[in-house]
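Morning F.,

Quick status update on the modeling queue. The single chain you submitted on Monday has been processed. Sequence for confirmation:
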Amino acid sequence: MKTHYFSFMLCAFLLMQSTTSFSQNTPVWESELSGSIMWQKVTSLGNVIASTGTSLIGVDPASGKINWTLDKVQYTVEDRFENINGTPFFSVTDNKGVLFIIEPFEGKILFSSADAGLEKISDKYFLYKSNGILIIGNEVGQKEPVMIMVDMTTGKKSWKKDGEFSRISSCFDLGNDEFVISTLFYVYKIAVKSGDVKWKKCIDEKFAKYGALLSMMDKNAANSELGKKQVTAALVITDFAKDLVFMAAQKESKKEVTGSDGKKTTTIEYSTIYNAFKISNGDYAWASTIEVNGKLGLLIPVQNGLIVTHGTMNMNNSAVNLINYTSGQRMWGKKGNGINVKGSPEGNAEINGKMMISSGNDRASFVYLLNTAAGTMDFEKPAKISGEIQYIETSGNNLLIATEEEINLYNTTTGEFGFDKSLKGSSKNITSNDGTIYVVNNKDELLYQLKSGATAATLLSKNPLKFQGKENVTHLEVREKGILISSEQNIALVDFSGNTLFNKYYAAPDQPGWKKALLIANAAYGAYATAAYSYSSAAFGAVSNSIEVKDPNSKAAKDITGAISNAYGDAAKSGMSFTKNCIAAATKRFKASSESTNSLFMMIEIGKKQYGLAQISKETGEKIATIDMAKDKTPSYDLDIVENTVYYKKGDTKLQAFKFQ
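Structure tokens below.
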């Protein structure tokens, strides 16, 4: 069955249908598959997967060679293909509802719901260090979920547990054939290979005497009102306290109040509990459980303790505190009640040896610089900026901060924003090279530059860009001749002296479906580069937003291979041959996504109700080719946006690959 998706895949196929002169319209390879191709997909690491009615096939993206064939995986549903976030694996579901989790390099089936006897999967956790996949689901005909462990190397079920594990709130792989999980009421340490429970502790010691009742509630959690609610909880393990695991969980209670008029109103109140357990034996590490009013916020491990924050219902004020790792004592503020901040904490970033905490309400964000050693804020009054902080770029010791609305320079010496007026825009309006940051202001449509260490931005462009179609900037890129600035249908180049070398507008089709396809196509490249392996210092945040941090001097920015190795596990420890392939592929793709291509693509109307894809040169702003879409409205294809390769089904059984620049 053909299914037409308006995604970044849509516009790719058109590159090879051009009726104009186009140097890359010859396939680099063609492969004859063993059956009629139902669909083909590209995984997050660039593997090419094709489905026929009788098998699932892995195709080498460089040569078209068949790497593996799985005859067991038949009649898979195209819209049930999924690249599993945070892993190199993908999953597919066949027309009978059977879920398969597959390793893409060797074609190993890591999990089959049919083989495991499951008809419904509610959760899954990948334990890379211990070669396991933890699955929570329902067996055929059963209402109560079970927890099973699958060996990641063989795909075989190692063990199964029912009872108290129907609702898992968090999971952490310890890496020595052990993992820690939390349920609604308990924390467990369990052996990965055998499933033996090493220890079990109630998350709040004072309720441990009600163990039988709590275990029963855990068992029935999946089908109870309590279990159906969203669980906000987290486990934190840090090298700063190597034998401890920290548990944080948000509690919710209803309070009924009768007013003077006799009417009853119900309000919801929140509190957060914290506890610590010794990983070795499960003993409570603190004298008592900590409970603090307010929602669970940030969890930030630092050398001298665990930084925690608590949000409030009205977002008028909150607190930031430090919990001592070994004693559980709250260390900051008067009587250990923490440091007050405006709004509710939303994100954090460690930059230039400072911890930045952002908090916010429905009107603005507030920036605090926290001295984690002293437990004080560098400045009593926070800096204020409109919108929610999403992006930070270092400029010497100062920070260029972007929300979804404004851009301003935070001076770490004064604790204030330095621009006379914030620039209008978001992180899409920013790029940098060799210490100079370039920003387009949406309000005046001018390009500004900020030299490293400067406290003010200077005007670079001599004339406003005047993008047509009421479009705002969506991408900036430093090129050899200047700064390329583009939006959905506009492209301009401003040289380093501020002269506009070109400013072109290509009218979009009036059909929203085709236009949407292109928008996702252009966004996919940036999303891969910034989201898949971006460096964010907000490493732990139960309910926080990760603030993207661009710091050329950071170790993570310089050691991409190390960062990806950490993301996909240690190949030497895991012993899985495909892990090395994952790391190599991820490193290669990250570098490819960081390199600039010489063209971009815009959907245009080339005739009455006739649409096409124009390839636009970044050097001149001119069309290189116009691809007519009229002849094929529902082709079967997929695009690897990183490698700039189109995979197209030619006829029933042939798969072709097209490369473009």
